[in-house]
Amino acid sequence: PLRARPQDVGPLVLEGDELVLRGDRMESAQDVRLAWALGHKHVEQFVGLLSPGRLQALPLAWDVRAEEWFDLFEHDPRKPEHWGHWTNRGMTANSQCLFCHTTRYDKGYQPATDTYDSKWMEIGVGCEACHGPGGAHVDWAHGDRAASDPYRAMDAARMESTCGSCHSRRVDRAPWE
After folding, report:
1. What tens digit of pLDDT does each residue of 112-157 get?
2. How far is CA 63 from CA 42, 100, 145, in A?
3. What are phi and psi of 55, to 5 degrees?
4. E strand residue ranges, the chain
5. What whole-number distance in Å separates Cα of residue 131 and Cα of residue 107?
6. Is the separation of the CB atoms in 46 and 52 below 8 Å?
7. CA distances, 90 to each of 19, 73, 87, 137 (Å)
8. What is the rounded distance in angstroms from the CA atom of residue 108 to the CA atom of residue 96?
């Protein structure tokens, strides 16, 4: 969900019915067609399609609260030859981001062609991203006390292994609370 109002789009351009991030704002000759926006509460980071199936996390983001654009790597400048530059594998969302930012993610990497056929159930982190199918929990929450709620008494070790798969990788990229 793009929260930037039309007058605030700055580096974004509408081309037909597609949003494009202007390359000159990322020190590139290439404009990038946006495929997704990750996040919505604090920051929206954009993911663009550089080649078939390869989604790249882009360096410019929208601060929802401050209503302004910022460079995620302002204090960590990256050059095109760096692994973590937005055009390189360190910022390939298919392998670096989407596992934690989608629900029921399947990377779909094709080694023979070095491409991706990634799929997910929903963009964003829904309950089932961590907990798996939640039908029994929903039934219990809606009053069916005969249903067993598998999440009601989750022990610390199970919670750590469930939550830690994404949260152990957490790194602040911007000064939001």
Report:
1. 999 999 998 887 777 776 666 677 777 777 877 766 776 666 677 7
2. 6, 20, 43
3. -95, 130
4. 12-15, 18-21, 32-38, 43-51, 54-63, 68-71, 102-103, 109-110, 115-116, 122-123
5. 19
6. no
7. 24, 13, 8, 37
8. 13
